[in-house]
């Protein structure tokens, strides 16, 4: 552990580790010293021996996120355990509107990918460990108890091995999740919109292969997404994200497996085949949160600590990853110009770029959720006409697909 770093990243999860990977290739050339502080120990098992877990939580990666991980140099390893999305099927229960997207018709190898969080985390951390760079220190298990702004630097108090150590740095990046205690202790408030819903997340097996098809099904009680996962032992798996009103969550979670499957089919139908096995169920409340401050002099807030949105359309992590790539690009350029990494003017320019992306992505997620949750008959007709028009208009479909895939954003420059 050094006494001074250029960058201290608080949180070594998918967002924090991705930022470290994005800066790794230029760390020697730019003399960047980086600390990653994480509350849990690093994984010790060999990623080459990784086996998919039936009950693992998963993340949908847009095609543009693949480009970001390619620029970091981790995609070759990562793609060995991802499931490509070849088709997306969008429907509205009880109504005529349907839209279908196909990768080949959009000129890409896949519309996106589904990856288990555990595998993604292991690949990112293994990439950093295999590099064995003296520029990146992992301080874990450890916790940050205080962050303070000093005259020409940032101070970070770390509790590590029962001792408190004071570090200094040019820039602190908070990537410690949506329940960040540091965010509150530093007086960073946030706006919050509750949806009065919970998401049930569970992996299921069906009696027919998923063939890379992802489904988004809107129902009168909330949307359902069924995402293709890598098969395990020859058995097709899919990740189900089922939105349930708060007043029904205990009932649905309390159903035995057969009753749960029957309720699922009543809501979703049989377009993906018959569900024959259900894994462990997880649930969490759904809300939209956005930090009121995402940059200060010497400080950047990233990932769920900055914004958390409804899982509809699966854009939350992709938005965070675009923020990671943009910040890495900003820091690399600042270092090349021998500018302090915590310079507020440059960080504000980074934030303004991200704010536009956040407004667009969060607005789409929030408004889509509200539109398809509204029971007004005229709105129902309008949204279904919209789905049908999108389905039969190639130009509109391509524009929509490129936006959903993140291909309307410039590729990151991490060199």
Query: Can you count the helices?
Result: 11
Radius of gyration: 22 Å
The CATH superfamily turns out to be FAD/NAD(P)-binding domain
- Total count of domains: 1
Overall number of strands = 20
What fraction of residues sit in β-strands?
25-35%
> How many strands, what sense, and barrel or not for the largest sheet?
9 strands, mixed
**Structural class label:** alpha+beta
The CATH architecture: 3-Layer(bba) Sandwich
Q: Between the first and last Cα atoms, what is the distance in angstroms?
A: 27 Å
| Apparent shape | globular
Mean pLDDT across residues:
90
Write the CATH fold name. Answer: FAD/NAD(P)-binding domain
In CATH, what is the class?
Alpha Beta
Helix content: 25-40%
Indicate the low-confidence ranges by residue numbers: none
Q: How would you describe this structure to a colleague?
A:
- There is one protein chain.
- The two termini are 27 Å apart.
- The chain has a single domain (4-192, 287-404), classed as FAD/NAD(P)-binding domain.
- The strands form 3 sheets. Strands 5, 6, 12, 13, 14, 15, 16, 17 and 20 form a 9-stranded mixed sheet that branches. Strands 1, 2, 8, 9, 10, 11, 18 and 19 form an 8-stranded mixed sheet that branches.
- It has helices at 14-27, 63-72, 75-78, 117-131, 181-185, 249-254, 257-268, 316-336, 344-373, 377-392, 394-404, and strands at 4-10, 34-37, 58-62, 82-85, 87-92, 98-102, 112-116, 136-139, 142-149, 154-160, 163-174, 190-206, 213-219, 222-232, 235-245, 275-278, 282-291, 295-296, 299-301, 307-308.
- It is an alpha+beta fold and 415 residues long.
- The model has no long low-confidence stretch (mean pLDDT 90).
């Amino acid at each position: 552990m050094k006494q001074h770093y250029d960058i201290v990243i608080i949180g070594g999860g998918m967002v924090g580790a991705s930022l470290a990977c994005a800066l790794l290739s230029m760390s020697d050339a730019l003399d960047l010293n980086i600390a990653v502080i994480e509350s849990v120990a690093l994984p010790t098992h060999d990623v080459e021996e990784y086996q998919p877990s039936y009950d693992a939580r998963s993340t949908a990666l847009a095609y543009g996120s693949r480009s970001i991980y390619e620029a970091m140099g981790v995609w070759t390893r990562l793609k060995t355990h991802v499931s490509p999305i070849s088709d997306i099927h969008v429907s509205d229960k009880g109504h005529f509107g349907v839209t279908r997207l196909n990768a080949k018709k959009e000129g890409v190898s896949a519309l996106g990918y589904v990856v288990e969080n555990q595998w993604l985390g292991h690949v990112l951390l293994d990439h950093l460990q295999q590099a064995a760079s003296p520029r990146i220190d992992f301080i874990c298990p450890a916790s940050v108890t205080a962050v303070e702004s000093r005259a020409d630097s940032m101070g970070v108090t770390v509790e590590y091995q029962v001792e408190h150590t004071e570090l200094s740095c040019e820039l602190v990046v908070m990537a410690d999740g949506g329940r960040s205690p540091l965010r509150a202790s530093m007086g960073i408030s946030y706006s919050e919109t509750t949806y009065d819903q919970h998401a049930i997340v569970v992996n299921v097996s069906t009696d027919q292969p998923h063939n890379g098809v992802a489904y988004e099904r809107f129902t009168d009680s909330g949307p359902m997404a069924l995402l293709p996962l890598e098969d395990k032992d020859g058995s097709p798996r899919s990740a189900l994200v089922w939105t349930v009103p708060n007043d029904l969550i205990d009932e649905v979670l309390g159903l035995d497996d057969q009753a749960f499957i029957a309720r699922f089919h009543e809501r979703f139908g049989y377009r993906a085949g018959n569900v024959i096995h259900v894994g462990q169920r997880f649930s969490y409340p759904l809300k939209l949160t956005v930090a009121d401050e995402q940059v200060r002099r010497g400080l950047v807030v990233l990932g769920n600590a900055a914004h958390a949105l409804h899982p509809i359309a699966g854009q939350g992590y992709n938005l965070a990853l675009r923020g990671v790539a943009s910040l890495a690009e900003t820091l690399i350029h600042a270092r090349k110009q021998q500018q302090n990494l915590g310079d507020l003017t440059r960080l504000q320019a980074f934030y303004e770029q991200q704010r536009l992306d956040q407004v667009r992505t969060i607005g789409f997620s929030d408004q889509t959720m509200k539109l398809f949750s509204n029971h007004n008959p005229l709105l129902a007709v309008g949204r279904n006409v919209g789905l049908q028009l999108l389905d039969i208009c190639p130009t509109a479909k391509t524009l929509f697909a490129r936006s959903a895939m993140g291909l309307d954003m410039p590729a990151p420059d991490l060199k």
